[in-house]
Amino acid sequence: MTTMVERTTTPPPLQGPTAKEKKYDRQLRLWAAGGQQALEDAKVLLLNSGPGVVGVETLKNLILPGVGNYTIVDEVDVTEKDLGVNFFLEESSLGKSRAEESCKYLQELNLEVNGNAIQKSTESFVEKPSVLDNYTLIILIGPTKDCSILEKISQHAQKSSIPLFYVHCVGFFSHFSVQLPAQFPIVDTHPDPASTQDLRLLNPWPELLIFAREKTGNLPFQRDHEHGHVPYLLLLLHYLNVWKAARDGKAPANYSNKKEFAAMVAEGARKNNAEGGEENFDEATANVLKSLNPPSISSGLKEVFESDDCRNLRKGSANFWIIAHAINKFHAAHNGLLPLPGALPDMKAQSSDYIQLQNIYKAKAHSDFAEVTATVRRSEKDLDIESPIDDKEIEAFCKGAQFVKLIRGRPIRIAKSTETLDWSDRAGALSMELENQKMMGLESLLPIYFAFLALDRHHDETSRLEQSRREPSPLKEIPGARDVSGAVLPVPNFAEAAHFYTPAVDPETEPKPWPRFDTPEARKTFDNVVKELDRADGAELHNISALTGGMVAQEVIKVITKQYVPVDNTCVFDGIASKTAVFNI
Amino acid sequence: METMVNGIEHSRERWRYLDYFLNKPGPTSDPEWLPGEQTINSLETSKVLVIGAGGLGCEILKNLALSGFKDIHVIDMDTIDVSNLNRQFLFREADVGKSKAECAAAFVEKRVKGVKITPFNGKIQDKDEDYYMQFKMIICGLDSIEARRWINATLVGMVDTENPESLKPLIDGGTEGFKGQSRVILPTMNSCIECQLDMHTPRAAVPLCTLATIPRQPAHCIEWAHIIAWEEHRKDDILDTDDPEHITWLYQKALARAQEFNIPGVTYSMTQGVVKNIIPAIASTNAIIAASCCNEAFKIATSCNPWLQNYMMYSGDDGVYTYTFETEQKEDCPVCGNLAKSLTVNPNMTLQEFIDSLGERAEAQLMKPTLRTEEKSLYSQFPASLREQTAPNLEKRLSELVENGEEIGISDPAFAIAFKYKLIFSS
């Protein structure tokens, strides 16, 4: 009955880490070789503007870990004030292209990375938006000169499924929105190890039961040493049998049942020893609550299963959906069970018992994986797919099925001065956010996002007014540009203008153009943020740029490696209160 | 406006962005605050100390220099290793082996004109109170809890209620993978690092008997090679975890043991990780935490906006999540509190067992403790004569040595001060 691990007869050849593995050691421990490869294959585009520090700081954090390729598009030449805020410039940079100079000093950080600089405005660079197809990810620094540029980039990125980050960083505040492709699935989400245990104790399989019987059949007669080393999960299986035998075969179902069950397990420990108890029994009682749950699936996986792409595979279906489909079939065929992940936590046990138990779990995980693979292969055949999905991809999905995540990318909101944003689909959720924070006695950070939208809108408006001055055109085309006398109106200052961009709640209007924003708290936060942004007058504070550059880089890495879970989809940072918040806009 | 700083003339035009915040109040800045020349002057004359020139330290130096600080000191005892280059962006391959403090200081001084950065290549424990007294505040980017506790205890000890200048704000950052935290400590005024010690639980050590007799995990085999096999076979060599030959030897021993017990999974990289207790580290997380610390330093130095009260934790594993809150100062904090901290102990445990447990208990974490009651010495690590004299106590039960509720003093060579604990017997 012993399952032996294959023994290596000769020790493996000793190879120390390569130079690259040494340099990247601290990050490979997070995203491994696969993540690193994805990073090295990436081509990141920075469309820079304003003081431009947050973009450069973001790139720094991508170049150091070895992103493959970066391109900086920036229109301006370096001026004196750049040297007080941007670390990747020198005295000698004054008067030269800011794109080229910051590209040069960033490049020094990692010679394996390929850097490019283009001295152009974002506007002229994206004249033909197809130029964006040369990149795998875009970072756009806002506000753009006017909203049509943002709109053009956003629409093209959607069409080409290129992830787009839209970033603002002004004074003590920052914001970024992530526009992911319409479907962005992540399998390797790196859940907390403590939450990943699926030991299937309520649904044991024959091999596990046989081993449990072998190790617990004569429990009362075992010698102390043996008794104190029975792996806790075999103890739980044993006592489950005892429990069920007295209760019509029913396992402990609710909290009080489980408490009673835990007490019964604890009762079995021998206490007539120096320690006054047994560690394996302590482990068993401590694990009752979390190990005896009927199978269930996470809301993320449920969403995947219920999606039409999962139910109805078609010729062009992504690998993710073909595997999800197979796992859904497994789930249905096995009364709600998912493929066994196969990992076993450490527990008090004799070495050989533990290894044997580990092998039982591994073997079961492998046979579940084989069953899923068979379904995948059938689908491939039905769909006439020629290149089969790699076993490793299927295996990774089986191991992490409970924690897979599907993010549905949404377009970035564009605050045009000539239109009213329609919040009908989000107004409810955002009003709820304000209410919830208020109930907890907290200030929602949502107004920060709206202040940045107001800033975009202000830029759009200013650009429109300026244009009207350059090329006088019929009044009616540019409302508000001139008063009746024909005199050019002054460009309103942001703080004054923002007041009118704020959500004026009109109870007559349904759907409301902005989310309900009439709580005095939200209004006060909004006004303060606007005043603070006005104080900054477009300036970046290096610390806030560095911090935001760190956050954006983390998210970019998660999107590129398809590991961990990226922000869905808007994040703000408040550098006065030292707080962040994430909203699904 | 032309000004002279550190002998270099420069125009305020360079600091135009910064000046928006130094010359104008904002809606949340203190109404009493006077923006303008006075504030700029106080920022430029604030002498600040950075402890650590590693992942956080490199970022901190850059950030402070670009926040308008002109007089910065930095301490680090380490030299540059190739595995630092994925995040410690002031260092290049040619710098491997050089002093981190010196290299980092020279780089930032060269890049940001007018800032003076004074490096010290050594340990924080080499410096005394007079040294720390010269700074306006201290910013820590450390990877060791022990060093944090040392500087914390030193700064708390320096506070003289008669002299407001003796209170040195301590801003501390730490990271692990995609996570980190920053905190602002005003010694004796709010919760200190020692008050918060139990928020950072040490990793539980694997019992020696598991390593010796019933290994189950690859890490158990590596720890066995590290703790037992090395002592047995290479007693006379001092283990150097940076020496590839030493790591290779441990790896091979661990691998052989793993094969003996059929344990899969021992690798070179894992051996290195376990033996050196490697914590994953990336540039972006360091950027976030270092910038958060420097943002607080800037606000404290200029009063241009309120600062953090007093702890922000950041987690980037699943989206972005921060929790910003005020940790409570503890009355029974062994460093800044007045009361002895209660430790619940089993009266039947021996003094030796109690000493061993001090290393692992989240609220103590003391490795080489010397213990005494008000009347007598219970156990003394140094000098050797006193150690011999007190060694017989190690076998005695706690109940034979102290009364229930008795206060004991514990000192440890890693810290400048003694900790007060009150032993409560469990029933």
Automatic annotation (TrEMBL), chain A:
Residues 24-564 form the THIF-type NAD/FAD binding fold domain. The keyword Nucleus does not apply. Pathway: Protein modification; protein neddylation. Residues 462-474 have a biased composition (Basic and acidic residues). Residues 1-22, 462-481 are annotated as: Disordered. Keywords: Ubl conjugation pathway. It holds the Pfam family ThiF. Gene3D superfamilies: NAD(P)-binding Rossmann-like Domain. The keyword Phosphoprotein does not apply. SUPFAM superfamilies: Activating enzymes of the ubiquitin-like proteins. Belongs to the ubiquitin-activating E1 family. ULA1 subfamily. Regulatory subunit of the dimeric UBA3-ULA1 E1 enzyme. PANTHER family: NEDD8-ACTIVATING ENZYME E1 REGULATORY SUBUNIT, UBIQUITIN-ACTIVATING ENZYME E1. This is NEDD8-activating enzyme E1 regulatory subunit. It comes from Lepraria finkii.
Automatic annotation (TrEMBL), chain B:
Keywords: ATP-binding, Ligase, Nucleotide-binding, Ubl conjugation pathway. Residues 343-426 form the E2 binding domain. It catalyses: ATP + [NEDD8 protein] + [E1 NEDD8-activating enzyme]-L-cysteine = AMP + diphosphate + [E1 NEDD8-activating enzyme]-S-[NEDD8 protein]-yl-L-cysteine. Its EC number is 6.2.1.64. It comes from the Eukaryota. Pathway: Protein modification; protein neddylation. Gene3D superfamilies: NAD(P)-binding Rossmann-like Domain, Ubiquitin activating enzymes (Uba3). Chain: B, domain 2, Ubiquitin-like 2 activating enzyme e1b. Chain: B, domain 3. Catalytic subunit of the dimeric E1 enzyme, which activates NEDD8. Belongs to the ubiquitin-activating E1 family. UBA3 subfamily. This is NEDD8-activating enzyme E1 catalytic subunit. It comes from Lepraria finkii.
